[in-house]
């Protein structure tokens, strides 16, 4: 995919702030710190279009990015971050739930899991819940640079078993660029390009 334009549009707290022109959208969902914002930057070839942090809980609103005036990426707050208050956690969970249950232009969810660990119960629950409400989900295994090449296939198998066989599991590294082209061709396929 040739990126002709990539703009940050809005950091939205409430649904009325969501862009409403109907461009198709891809959402990045996953635990805090799994690498959602980093992946988005890497895909777009921009260092810090989306804000990244070593500390979990960086993305606290839904951030919308408009690409080539043709589609959008939505960078969502992470789930499962224990160090924020209970009410804060509940607020993020609600935001996520409202978005995922009502966002009409949402074409596909990219659920990110860390390739170094088996999916956590919260990853599996979130995946099942998304499927149960009829969403299409592709799983992205992040930080593939952190494991040896031979461990990648094994990790993918583990994810497939733990999550009941998602059709697409794509290992990526936002650090080294592995998997980025594969993910772009997946996105193009999904858009019927
Ligand atoms: P929240 O916004 O808190 O939900 O986190 P996030 O999922 O957006 O994660 P973010 O992109 O902010 O990255 C978290 C940390 O992981 C940062 O320190 C990144 O540099 C690091 N990171 C992200 N992707 C990779 C990767 O592919 N490889 C390595 N080695 N580190 C990565
Ligand atoms: Mg983030």
TrEMBL record:
Record has Ion transport as a keyword: no
Entry keyword set: Cell cycle, Cell division, GTP-binding, Magnesium, Metal-binding, Nucleotide-binding, Septation
Gene3D superfamilies: P-loop containing nucleotide triphosphate hydrolases
GO biological process: division septum assembly
Domain EngB-type G per the UniProt entry, residue ranges: 22-193
Cofactor: Mg(2+)
One Pfam family this sequence matches: MMR_HSR1
GO molecular function: GTP binding; metal ion binding
GO cellular component terms listed in the entry, alphabetical order: cytosol
Protein family per UniProt: Belongs to the TRAFAC class TrmE-Era-EngA-EngB-Septin-like GTPase superfamily. EngB GTPase family.
Function: Necessary for normal cell division and for the maintenance of normal septation.
Name this polypeptide is given: Probable GTP-binding protein EngB
Source organism of this protein record: Alicyclobacillus mengziensis
Classification lineage: Bacteria, Bacillati, Bacillota, Bacilli, Bacillales
């Amino acid at each position: 995919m040739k990126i002709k334009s990539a703009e940050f549009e809005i950091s939205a707290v409430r649904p009325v702030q969501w862009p409403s022109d109907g461009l198709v959208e891809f959402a990045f969902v996953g635990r805090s710190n799994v690498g959602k914002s980093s992946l988005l930057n890497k895909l777009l070839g921009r260092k810090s279009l989306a804000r990244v942090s070593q500390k979990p809980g960086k993305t606290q609103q839904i951030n919308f990015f408009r690409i080539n005036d043709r589609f959008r990426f939505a960078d969502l707050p992470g789930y499962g971050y224990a160090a924020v208050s209970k009410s804060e956690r509940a607020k993020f969970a609600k935001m996520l739930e409202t978005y995922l249950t009502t966002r009409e232009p949402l074409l596909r969810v990219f659920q990110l899991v860390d390739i170094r660990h088996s999916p956590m119960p919260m990853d599996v629950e979130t995946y099942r819940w998304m499927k149960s409400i009829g969403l299409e989900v592709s799983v992205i295994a992040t930080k593939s640079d952190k494991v040896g090449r031979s461990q990648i296939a094994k990790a993918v198998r583990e994810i497939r078993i733990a999550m009941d066989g998602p059709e697409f599991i794509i290992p990526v590294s936002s650090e080294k660029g592995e998997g980025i082209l594969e993910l772009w061709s997946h996105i193009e396929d999904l858009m019927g390009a």
